[in-house]
């Protein structure tokens, strides 16, 4: 694999921890049959920002693209030990405020576009382990909440980018309209490009969830009563570059 730019390394964990995990994965299956470096980074990023606890046994199949290879006991122990070390490092980055999306989405060069897509694959795989938390229950619309609607929309972005099933994105028709108004054809490639630039913004929104929950719990503990959940601002300019505000554009 080509060397990772220094700027990316600085924003992520020490690569030796991931190298150790990859060595354990290589000891179980060929390299092509398990998550690569960037997929692992996206996966553990998602794990670090997901509030519900996820059992370790749920991680294993993810590493192998949801297949179940033959394990020996020593393989399981070594693999999960290495995985926990990576997970703990990501949590520490989040707690210390150093966990950041690792790519400059506007200035991707060479293989960085592929690396970003691989990162998103791992990130969505991690989110999908708690799909109901991030996306909600599709059948339950009675108690819809603007805050959680925004969370679901930003989480759904990654599923759509991975599957290219644009029909799943809540505001896809409005996005198509925006593209047409700009004098362009809303092809799948154009839709992908429009959503792709939203990645850093969506990661940031999703990452705020655990901070909001922790802050709310702390305030409840202090005040002895429930507090209103912080709302995500929707009046900021949309990152897609249309010049419109979020409430009137891609994530409205």
TrEMBL record:
Stored InterPro entries: SEC_C_motif (IPR004027), YgfB-like (IPR011978), YgfB-like_sf (IPR036255)
Protein name as catalogued: YecA family protein
Gene3D superfamilies to which the protein is assigned, alphabetical: 3.10.450.50
Protein source organism: Methylotuvimicrobium alcaliphilum (strain DSM 19304 / NCIMB 14124 / VKM B-2133 / 20Z) (Methylomicrobium alcaliphilum)
């Amino acid at each position: 694999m080509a060397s990772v730019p220094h700027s990316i390394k600085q924003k992520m964990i020490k690569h030796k921890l991931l190298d150790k995990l990859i060595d354990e994965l290589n000891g179980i299956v060929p390299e092509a049959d398990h998550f690569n470096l960037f997929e692992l980074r996206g996966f553990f990023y998602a794990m670090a920002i997901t509030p519900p606890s996820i059992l370790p046994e749920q991680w294993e199949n993810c590493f192998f693209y949801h297949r179940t290879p033959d394990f020996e006991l020593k393989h399981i122990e070594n693999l999960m030990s290495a995985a926990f070390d990576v997970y703990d490092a990501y949590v520490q980055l989040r707690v210390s405020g150093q966990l950041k999306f690792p790519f400059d989405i506007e200035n991707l060069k060479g293989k960085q576009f592929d690396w970003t897509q691989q990162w998103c694959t791992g990130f969505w795989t991690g989110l999908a382990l708690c799909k109901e938390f991030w996306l909600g229950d599709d059948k339950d619309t009675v108690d819809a909440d603007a805050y959680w609607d925004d969370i679901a929309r930003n989480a759904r972005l990654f599923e759509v980018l991975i599957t290219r099933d644009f029909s799943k994105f809540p505001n896809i028709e409005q996005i198509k309209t925006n593209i047409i108004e700009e004098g362009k054809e809303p092809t799948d490639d154009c839709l992908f490009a429009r959503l792709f630039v939203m990645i850093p913004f969506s990661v940031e929104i999703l990452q705020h969830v655990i901070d909001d929950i922790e802050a709310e719990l702390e305030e409840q503990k202090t005040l002895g009563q429930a507090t209103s959940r912080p709302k995500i601002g929707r009046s900021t300019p949309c990152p897609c570059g249309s010049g419109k505000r979020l409430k009137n554009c891609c994530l409205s």
